[in-house]
Amino acid sequence: MTISHIFPSRYGTLALGVIILLLLLHVLHDQYNAGPTTGQLSSLGSRKDLTQEDFPKRLWTTSSRSPMQIEKEAAGWMRTWTDLNPEHRFELLTERGGATYVKNNFPIDSSAVNTYMALGDPILRADLVRYLALLKDGGVYNDLDVGCVKPIDVWIPPRWRNDTSVVLGIEADNNLGQGGSKIFGFVNWTLMARRDQPFMRYLVDRVIQNIHQASSRHNETLGNLKLYRQEVLDVTGPGALTKTALQYFSEKTQTTVTAQNFTKMKRPRLIEDILVLPINSFGAGHQVRWSGQKEDGSALVHHYFAGSWKGSHPEGPKL
Asked: Which pTM does this prediction carry?
């Protein structure tokens, strides 16, 4: 049966156009309300027009404790963010708040919700929820023990503002041991992103994949999964972020990108739409001294290393 059999012929073309328009609106409505889903890089589409939407003025942090239980020292570090960035909205994701956020912002049957809600280890949940929050809403994430040194608005050089979707900083850049083995990594205690960016989607995919692979390797459910300290770093933490970022850079540029491309970097570098900051920016402190560099006044944040999660995760073999 053709459209002309359903509607009078003089209205056939108009009716067909209306139906197509309604179908398109229905598809767009479903895509919008479904929230971010996960998929491979090939499904992420082309680079977005970054001039249409600036970095959201949102500050994210995670805590296993309620606001009333946060120590005075940590509360002081938190205030540096609001004092230097008064236009930003502060969001504290506690254990309960993180679960509510994930369930309210991602499809209920998605791998993001299923994985997050099944995890029993608070540190794995804290790592995952920071990536999910930046994917969905964007802004700046910082650990509770990170203080702001310079306002967020000056973090990105003006000439790259409209070309940057994600900001990463170097944590470690050093040769260690007799063999000169390379230690290199990006920080995951501070991250910055616009909302719904391909790299953050790619990162969420990889981290969720890592979690399930670790569960299979240990033959444990996600609820009972307990990883060694180094495993945490490699499965959801800065090790996972670093490996994923280098893979993403390689795929996007069609070249092999390794730590060597960033070692001893002194100035910010834009790779596609991701801005990589030198070690002084986010890694000021002992990381800078490890790298053989000196603090030069360009620190944007300071990490106080007050996190206590390592005490509940024994050392073990590196993956």
From this structure: 0.83
Contact 198, 192 (CB under 8 A): no
Cβ contact 253:158 at 8 Å: no
Chain-centroid distance of CA 43 in Å reads 19
Instruction: Report how far residue 238's alpha carbon sits from residue 88's, in angstroms, rounded to the nearest whole number.
Output: 25
Would the pLDDT of 135 be above 50? Answer: yes
- Phi/psi of residue 210, each to 5°? -60, -45
| Nearest partner of 309 among 75, 91, 63, judged by Cα | 63
pLDDT (tens digit per residue) in 258-303: 999 998 888 999 999 999 999 999 987 666 766 667 778 899 999 9
CB-neighbour burial class of residue 208 (10 A; exposed 0-12, middle 13-18, buried 19+): buried
CB 267 within 8 A of CB 170: no
Q: Torsions phi, psi of 97, nearest 5?
A: -65, -35
> What would the two tokens of residue 152 be?
């967020």
